[in-house]
Amino acid sequence: MRIVDARVIVCSPGRNFVTLKLVTEDGLYGLGDATLNGRELAVVSYLQDHVVPLLIGRDARRIEDTWQYLYKGAYWRGGPVGMTAIASVDMALWDILGKAANVPVYRLLGGASREAVMVYGHANGKDVEETVAATAHYLELGYKAVRAQCGIPGLASTYGVGRGGMFYEPAEPGLPPENVWSTEKYLSFVPSLFARLREEFGPEPHLLHDVHHRLTPIEAARLGKALEPCHLFWMEDPVPAEVQDGFRLIRHHTTTPIAVGEVFSSIFDCRHLIQEQLIDYIRSTVVHAGGLTHLRKIAHLAEMYRVRTGCHGATDLSPVCMAAALHFDLSVHNFGIQEYMRHTDETDQVFPHAYSFEDGYMHPGDAPGLGVDIDEALAAQYPYARAYLPVNRREDGTAHDW
């Protein structure tokens, strides 16, 4: 089962995706997601120029050895570009191994720890009533958990408020758009949003909120304290992820659960937060944290400290990654919840898949491997289109965390 071909496929069916396809001498192939939002071509170059030449001739079954070879052999370790590239190789190898064994990947990871995976959707609106209506829509679709984001009075735009119904894609063509931000307006508004949602829907639905790294530790502590009566499932990314000591201050002031980690690329980024129990959910992704091989190690460390998983699952992660995440979610014991942002119809057509949604839960399906394919002819009809995430500025013009 030696690798005889490795190709990087770039397409943009509504947004950019990078996919690695590995082919073995016996005709099996596996897919891996290599998408890094706004920096896609950096990963393409890393794969084509530096990784692919190392893969030809390697035994596709030696997944752990290949992971260590690519990680330790680079010397310049870690980082989002390198770890995304390694993740794509890792996913593709697990896909091949599942196909060779004729079983879904989750069975290779120890089998299912649950019957299905609880997911949350994204409800948003330009004002409170629109967000209430969007939340109601998700609950009608069967979701048990909903992330709520809302336009902030006095601000022209804010993170999480999409341009359409079910789909939210913040990356835009051209140069990065610049948004205006006010922490003061945000902090004075958000508690009233969730008070209104609890008034409307009662205590049963799980409600989540993403701060998106925008607060200082004491500001985040204030928000968490104010949201305690609303019993959030979690408050996500309250401060920039690298401000790790700040999580201790937040912890001292509020019992609102904390989630972080979508920007982490290795276990070393989150070890401190997990071991000191400064967070409740680790949100690292299959594609940006080194693949299934490395993400499982993060989950096993987290399990020791009663920290649960809550993997990032935005639309900038392709259906290949979504499938890999679901296999991971179904298998690990300390699963918490999975983010699920639905892809566009065009994306689903390019990436036909076996995973499914029903009544607030998802299952990766029982197709061999990851259960996702790529229609390369159709993908070629959607060429790459450069796009950037927005840049935030305070009202006085100071650059701020987006």
Summary keywords:
402 residues, alpha/beta, Enolase-like, domain 1, ten-stranded mixed beta sheet, 18 strands, globular
Describe the structure.
With 402 residues, this protein is α/β, with parallel strands linked by helices. It folds into two domains: 102 residues, Enolase-like, N-terminal domain (Enolase-like, domain 1); 259 residues, Enolase-like C-terminal domain (TIM Barrel). The strands form four sheets. Strands 4, 5, 8, 9, 10, 11, 12, 13, 14 and 15 form a ten-stranded mixed β-sheet that branches. A three-stranded antiparallel β-sheet has the order 1-2-3. Strand 1 and strand 2 form a beta hairpin. Helix 7 packs parallel to helix 8. The longest helix has 22 residues. It is globular, with a radius of gyration of 20 Å. The relative contact order is 0.17. The mean pLDDT is 96.
DSSP strand tally:
18
Mean pLDDT: 96
Percent in helix: 25-40%
CATH architecture of the largest domain: Alpha-Beta Barrel
The CATH topology annotation of the largest domain reads as TIM Barrel
Instruction: Report the CATH superfamily of the largest domain.
Output: Enolase-like C-terminal domain
**Main sheet record:** 10 strands, mixed
Please outline the helices and strands.
Blueprint: E1 3-11, E2 17-24, E3 29-33, H1 40-55, H2 63-72, H3 80-101, H4 105-108, E4 117-125, H5 128-140, E5 145-150, E6 172-173, E7 178-181, H6 183-201, E8 206-210, H7 217-227, E9 234-236, H8 246-253, E10 258-260, H9 267-275, E11 281-282, H10 291-304, E12 308-309, H11 319-331, E13 338-339, H12 345-350, E14 356-358, E15 361-363, H13 376-379, E16 387-388, E17 391-394, E18 399-400
Parallel strand pairs: 4-5, 4-13, 5-8, 7-17, 8-9, 9-10, 10-11, 11-12
Antiparallel strand pairs: 1-2, 2-3, 4-15, 6-16, 14-15, 17-18
Helix pairs in contact: 1-3, 2-3, 3-10, 5-6, 6-7, 7-8, 9-10
